[in-house]
Write a structure and sequence with these properties.
Elements: H1 2-11, E1 15-20, E2 30-34, E3 44-47, E4 50-53
Antiparallel strand pairs: 1-2, 3-4
Length: 54
């Protein structure tokens, strides 16, 4: 189930493979990250009645 969801997110460009973590034995775990081009953060501070972009 998780593998299918992860594969779908990779195909759609939301998740990217970011390498392998260290391991003390056995197979090294593969690491994934959020795709930087897909996510944005917007913040607006409202001071009384005047919105100011942050």
């Amino acid at each position: 189930m998780i593998g299918k969801i992860l594969n779908d997110l990779i195909k759609e460009g939301w998740i990217v493979e970011s390498g392998y973590a260290s391991s003390t034995g056995g197979r090294r775990p593969q690491m994934f990250s959020l795709a930087q081009s897909k996510f944005y953060v917007v913040a607006v501070a409202v001071d009384q009645h005047i919105p100011r972009p942050q």
